[in-house]
Specification:
- The complex is a heterodimer of chains A (492) and B (168).
- An eight-stranded antiparallel beta sheet of chain A has the order 14-13-10-11-12-15-22-20. Chain A has a five-stranded parallel beta sheet with strand order 3-2-1-4-5, with helices on both faces.
- Chain A is globular, with a radius of gyration of 25 Å.
- Chain A is an alpha+beta fold and 492 residues long.
- By secondary structure, chain B is mostly beta strands.
- Chain B folds into two domains: 2-79, 2-Layer Sandwich (Glycoprotein, Type 4 Pilin); 83-162, RNA polymerase II/Efflux pump adaptor protein, barrel-sandwich hybrid domain (OB fold (Dihydrolipoamide Acetyltransferase, E2P), Beta Barrel).
- Chain B is 0% helix and 58% strand.
- In chain B, the strands form three sheets. Chain B has an eight-stranded antiparallel beta barrel with strand order 1-2-3-4-5-6-7-8. Chain B has a five-stranded antiparallel beta sheet with strand order 9-10-17-15-12, with no helix packed on it. In chain B, strands 14-13-11-16 form a four-stranded antiparallel beta sheet, with no helix packed on it.
- Classes of the chains: A alpha+beta (492), B mainly beta (168).
């Protein structure tokens, strides 16, 4: 029961709206986007066959207005909605509403979204089927014995709010004497952030690495994995650099973690593209969560497997069979993605704003740029600060790093402060080169990664550039008779 | 022709002056010939500083100049350290230093009647949490100090005046 999709509405913005749009158009479909007025000048709006303006009490709210977006899709004659990542992508109610409106939600079933969206339920589901989860104590299982069960796990422990996410309310316990007070603090934070004080505690992995596995499942029960991605370079629990293959894994570990991910997806009856995330440390890996959507860092997988994940999502949504087996999914070379953020790494990654005064992407072998910005565009603090993704492919990790550095250095992006130079510093770091990263890497190496101030020659050059481009200042200099100006020690 | 340039929190005074058919830059007595070529089709320009050549991208927006050089991008903020009161048609178009922006006087280094040499600090002001030295823009004699320590002022307020002198 396949049905051809003719028009896709993309319910997103920025680089991912454009990236999805390009595949939609390349497969011969019509592409419709919704946009908030702040994004009116964005590349996705320019390239769409139809762009529909949406509003909201805040710019973000405009992209969360399910009813309005479904109405726009219906008006545009769309037969499918692609939610991208973030916004409505993991909203089971939205997925149901799309189906009720007679359209296809390009993603998994609402039930799969519900199951994996509840972190405690997802964890229990995965553990019950024999997949590895970190040793844990869940308060809901038996509140009376919660503290005793937590104590029995032994240190170090990580306390997490049951309804949590984004690292909020998490507390690490290394000294068991502080367990009681830390549990109370975590409970009050969970109550404050999520309106839910229930907790669970799991064994904390010191210097953990974040390794995740891309999976694809079709409507006919076939599930394959597309290998792993390592995303351990993070700031404030958000990924900054992702790569594949992971430099941490042996071949046997790689096979085990990828097989576990595919097994979990199979157990869920997973359909469409998804990502199973694991914490890895000391040779062991534990299930963390499953993201039931396209992932920001999906391009590194595309570069090493040669498969267009958005095209696969569309085919799966049409009811087509994957048409290939696990053995057909190969990994070629190494790929790295760098997230270019409008932020100041020196000021604790505070978001920056401004107008993109000049933008030139370089031509580098193996380079792919997924960008949502163009010259002249104003970058406000209304949305996520990610501007673009610089993605490179190389024969091996060393070559990929070299190409990534070249791409960063040759990118011209003026008018707004970004983390471009900082990313280059990370790639140049000798510990990064050895692959010895973990989720605390950026914090631990903050002083080594700090950008050195410009040297004397560079300062002189910067002042010269500023002075010569200042027409007012040039006019003043021109007004002084050359003879008078020539008085002094200066000689050519 | 003097300006205050601020780069990543580093503040420097510099002067642009005409030299032969080009320009020269004076930073703390270090003078070099400088030139900026027209932009190529991709917007890049060649910047010459003394005997060094750089491939740069330069975009100006108000008092900010965005410069990409050697793989890094910088924002250079230009601040006018003094605004010279201009006598229409007069020979001495340089009698009074005026406040480039609202601020407070931090210190006064001279008194009326004092002889000052070009570059000597006359007064230090603080504006927008940034201290700026008001320096003598030529050799001369102080005629008046218009502001005392601790006083606040608006943009364009006269700060220090020099006695009028004939051009040598």
């Amino acid at each position: 029961m396949t049905h051809r999709i003719g028009t896709v509405l993309i319910a997103n913005r920025g680089e991912i709206a454009l990236r999805i749009l390009r595949t939609v158009k390349a497969t011969g479909c019509r592409a419709v986007v919704v946009f908030h007025a702040l994004d009116a000048g964005s590349p996705a709006v320019r390239e769409a066959d139809l762009a529909v303006r949406v509003e909201g009490p805040t710019p973000v709210a405009a992209y969360l207005d399910a009813a309005r977006i479904i109405a726009a899709a219906r008006d545009a004659g769309a037969d499918a909605i692609h939610p991208g990542y973030g916004f409505l992508s993991e909203n089971a109610a939205f997925a149901r509403q799309v189906a009720e409106a007679g359209m296809v939600f390009i993603g998994p079933t609402p039930d799969a979204i519900d199951l994996m969206g509840d972190k405690v339920r997802a964890r229990a589901f995965v553990a019950a089927r024999g997949f590895p989860v970190a040793p844990s104590a869940i308060e809901d299982d038996d509140p009376a014995s919660f503290l005793a069960r937590a104590r029995a796990l032994g240190p170090p422990l990580l306390i997490k709010p049951a309804a949590g996410g984004g690292g909020k309310g998490m507390r690490i316990v290394r000294d068991m004497a502080t367990l009681d007070t830390e549990v109370e603090r975590a409970r009050s934070e969970g109550q404050r952030y999520f309106g839910d004080g229930r907790l669970y505690v799991e064994r904390y992995v010191e210097r953990p690495r974040h390794i995740e596995v891309q999976v694809l499942g079709d409507a006919h029960g076939t599930v394959v994995h597309l290998w792993e991605r390592e995303c351990s370079v993070q700031r404030r629990f958000q990924k900054v650099i992702e790569e594949t293959p992971s430099p941490a894994l042996t071949q046997a570990e790689r096979r085990d973690i990828c097989d576990a991910a595919a097994g979990i997806a199979r157990a869920v009856g997973y359909r469409n593209a998804g990502t199973v995330e694991f914490i890895y440390g000391d040779g062991a890996f534990y299930f963390l969560e499953m993201n039931t959507r396209l992932q920001v860092e999906h391009p590194v997988t595309e570069l090493v497997t040669g498969r267009d994940l958005v095209a696969e999502q569309l085919r799966i949504a049409e009811g087509a069979a994957l048409g290939y087996a696990q053995a057909d999914v190969r990994q070629d070379g190494h790929a790295i993605e760098l997230r270019l953020y409008a932020e100041d790494p020196v000021r604790n990654y505070a978001p920056t704003t401004g107008r993109i005064a000049r933008l030139r992407w370089p031509e580098v072998e193996g380079l792919r740029v997924d960008s949502g910005i163009s010259e002249g565009q104003r970058i406000s603090a209304a949305f996520d600060p990610m501007l673009a993704k610089v993605i490179v492919h190389g024969a091996d990790r060393m070559q990929a790093i070299a190409r990534a550095r070249q791409a960063l250095q040759e990118t011209v992006l003026l008018g707004i402060a970004t983390n471009r130079e900082f990313l280059d510093r990370v790639l140049a770091d000798h510990l990064f080169a050895t692959g010895a990263v973990h989720t605390g890497f950026l914090d631990e190496r903050a002083s080594q990664l700090a950008l050195p101030p410009p040297d004397h020659e560079t300062l002189m050059a910067l002042i010269a550039a500023a002075a010569l481009s200042d027409t007012g200042l040039r006019g003043e200099a021109d007004a002084v008779p050359p003879l008078y100006a020539a008085i002094g020690a200066w000689r050519n | 022709m003097r300006r205050h340039f601020e780069i990543d929190g580093t503040a420097l005074d510099a002067a642009l002056m005409r030299h032969a058919d080009g320009y020269a830059l004076d930073v703390g007595g270090e003078r070099q010939a400088i030139a900026l070529s027209p932009a190529t089709s991709d917007g890049a320009q060649t910047l010459r500083v003394g005997d060094r050549l750089y491939r740069v991208h330069v975009v100006r927006d108000g008092d900010e100049t965005f410069v990409q050089i050697a793989g890094r991008s910088f924002t250079v903020r230009t601040i006018e350290p003094l605004t010279v009161f201009a006598h229409a048609g007069g020979a001495n178009a340089d009698l009074t230093a005026r406040a480039p922006m609202p601020g407070t006087v931090v210190s006064v280094r001279i008194q009326p009647g004092a002889r000052v040499a070009k570059g000597e600090t006359l007064m230090v002001i603080e504006s927008m949490k940034l201290e700026t030295a008001i320096t003598a823009w030529r050799d001369g004699t102080v005629e008046a100090v218009h502001m005392a320590v601790g006083q606040t002022f608006d943009r364009d307020t006269p700060l220090v005046s020099l006695v009028a002198e004939a051009v040598e």
